[in-house]
């Protein structure tokens, strides 16, 4: 019997400002840490804590990994298939 596929991961996309932040990351260790954090939120977009805000914009969430020293601000699409990363701190 063939193994069942795991849950579908959300696709990660970056805002323009996050893309510019990515261009400034040159350390292999920082890239690895960021990659691990992105995998976490792609598997479970609810892992981050909600940030206070109003209903007029996207509902921002924050994921912080203290071990890897990574912080991401992001929002999740209505169908929960896309995670948009708005800010990266490594």
With strands numbered from the N-terminus, the spatial order across the biggest sheet is 1-5-4-3-2
The helix/strand class is: alpha+beta
- Sequence stretches where pLDDT stays below 50 over 5 or more residues: none
Shape: globular
Determine the number of helices (DSSP H or I, runs of at least 4 residues).
2
Task: Assign a percent range to the helix content.
Answer: 25-40%
Mean pLDDT: 89
The number of distinct β-strands equals 5
| Rg, Å, rounded | 14 Å
Distance between the termini: 43 Å
Sequence of secondary-structure elements: EHHEEEE
What fraction of the residues are assigned to beta strands by DSSP?
25-35%
Summarize the main sheet: 5 strands, mixed
Report on the structure:
- This protein has 90 residues and is of the alpha+beta class.
- 27% of the residues lie in helices and 29% in strands.
- It contains two helices and five strands, in the order βααββββ.
- A five-stranded mixed beta sheet has the order 1-5-4-3-2.
- Strand 4 and strand 5 form a beta hairpin.
- The chain is globular and about 45 Å long.
- The chain starts with 10 loop residues before the first strand and ends with a strand.
Compact description:
The protein is 27% helix and 29% strand. It has 90 residues and is α+β, with helices and mostly antiparallel strands. The longest helix has 16 residues, at 28-43.
Distinctive features:
90 residues, 2 helices, alpha+beta, five-stranded mixed beta sheet
